[in-house]
Amino acid sequence: MEIRIDADIDEETAQAIATVVSEHLGTDVELVGDAGTLAEAGANWDDEGAVVTEREEALRAEIEDILGGGPDRGFEKIDELGKLFVRERLDMIFDEIAYEDGTFARHDADDELPADGLVTGVGTIDDRKVAFTANDYTVKAGSLGKMGVEKVLRIQERAMDLGIPMLRLVDSTGARLNGEEREPGETHMGRYRGGKMFYNQCRMSGQIPQIGVLYGPDVAGSAYTPVFCDFLIMVEDISGMAIASPRIVRAMTGEEIDMQSLGGPEVHARHSGSADLVVPDEETAAERAKELLRLLPQNYAERPPTAPARPPAKNPHSLDAVIPDEPNRAYDVHEVIARLVDRDSFVEVKPDFAPELVTGLGRIDGRVVGVVANQPEHVSGAIFPDSADKGAGFVWTCDAYNVPLVYLCDTPGYMIGSQVEKEGVLRKGRKFIYATSNAQVPKFCVITRKAYGAGIYAMAGPSFGPDATLALPSAEISVMGPEAAVHALFGGQLEEMDDEAREAFVESAKKEFDRYVDIEKQASTMQVDELIPAGDLRAQLAVRLETSETKDRDDRPRHHGTVFF
């Protein structure tokens, strides 16, 4: 509404008049004089007619000071370590921070503990609400104090109530151990103390996605925070985690070791399998965290978000040429995956741990899938104790968050020998089979080449509830490979032959064996659902994924299984 006024009034008075009229009429008001617009109100209350008292100004100044982080020496330390300030991290990941809680935590202490060194709240990423905790390393090296624990517990409860993912930006040296943090006799294991954080993480598991990003050395009990997440990203050079610091290790065991050798990214990506992704810098960590969130639903009751379909990076109609005729000849299964998933959609998890099995999230025709693939380029794709453990955990996570599974089977089966028996190939191997058996999301087994022994059990073979078993012309299904079968059947005879006779006999027996692993004959007796040209595989998977979207989950008459991961 435009209101003309002829009186000669100052700017403040004009604004006051416009504000009062706008509030009274409930509409936008423009106050106009001979010289043009004098004042406006009703369109933007942030700028128009706001009355800010000294009390409010003082509070805003206090908030601004708290948001500025810790003392100068804290900023000097993160500069020295090459780290970003916590709010720079948040800006890099979130489109917007909707709100924070506990800004004034420990405000009564001193200027050394702004927000008690922890930022918690809810933000938006791609228009999706995501809860977060983020340590402020400028405050006591990101250590966790009493009110920090309280803030974690509250945001965990909110995330569970709201059914939204939780992002943990971890940059903490662990619990703050100085005396003023607790009363005499008080411990970390009280009902509403530190242990409750990990209890909540366990309860959240499979209910809402939890993604951790580790930016610093995290030791002692707090190191469980990142490993309880569904996916963990570690930043090279600056991150690490261990049950005890190198100093404590030295004091208690006498072992001389630094943090990178004890629990750096190399250790947890290649050896322990605790890290899902290792990235070179904080910018890449932010991108990877957002990529993972885009491939996961808000919670267990929802489906992962779809995206516009994109063609694969490589021609799907060249797939058959990738897979060798010889069952023992190596090739890189990434070449298969590149012809199946949408371009730039595949995020491989734990790529350096147990590389004989490739696991990762991607899209086929815009729909999210979890890919579980034997890697013939590494130990022929045999399943070792670690790869069984890796596969089981990945399958279980996909099933928790409604991510359909595509298994690409090309394996001689479980590895044999005394070493793997000591490493628990049976105990860990059963986990993979158990996870596959109990996963209720759509499952598609694709036999690309070898499907020998119990390997096909773990890879969702026909007996293990797949929605379809598809075979390519290169497929071979057998209880064992030809070499092993000949030695199993004729071992005694072979021992009595000379080298030349033995070699000739083995080759003859292997040819005879091949008659019984003819995939067309096996397809004729419906041992597979469909034998398809390799070039049709992507299209077949796309349409079957679409068709399976209405698949229901079954209630099982039990509390839970007894095989844990």
Can you characterise this structure?
This protein has 565 residues and is α/β, with parallel strands linked by helices. The chain has 4 domains: 2-41, no CATH class; 70-294, 2-enoyl-CoA Hydratase, Chain A, domain 1 (Alpha-Beta Complex), CATH 3.90.226.10; 316-475 and 528-549, 2-enoyl-CoA Hydratase, Chain A, domain 1; 481-517, no CATH class. It has 21 helices and 20 strands. Strands 13, 14, 15, 16, 17, 18, 19 and 20 form an 8-stranded mixed sheet that branches. The longest helix has 17 residues, at 146-162.
SSE diagram, text form:
Layout: E1 2-4, H1 11-25, E2 29-33, E3 36-41, H2 54-67, H3 72-81, H4 86-93, E4 96-101, E5 118-125, E6 128-135, H5 146-162, E7 166-170, H6 194-204, E8 210-214, E9 217-219, H7 224-227, E10 231-235, E11 240-242, H8 246-253, H9 259-263, H10 265-271, E12 277-279, H11 282-294, H12 319-322, H13 334-337, E13 347-349, E14 357-364, E15 367-374, H14 385-400, E16 405-411, H15 418-422, H16 425-438, E17 443-452, H17 455-458, E18 468-471, E19 476-478, H18 482-495, H19 499-514, H20 519-524, E20 530-531, H21 537-547
Parallel strand pairs: 1-2, 6-7, 7-8, 8-10, 9-11, 10-12, 15-16, 16-17, 17-18, 17-19, 18-20
Antiparallel strand pairs: 2-3, 4-5, 5-6, 13-14, 14-15
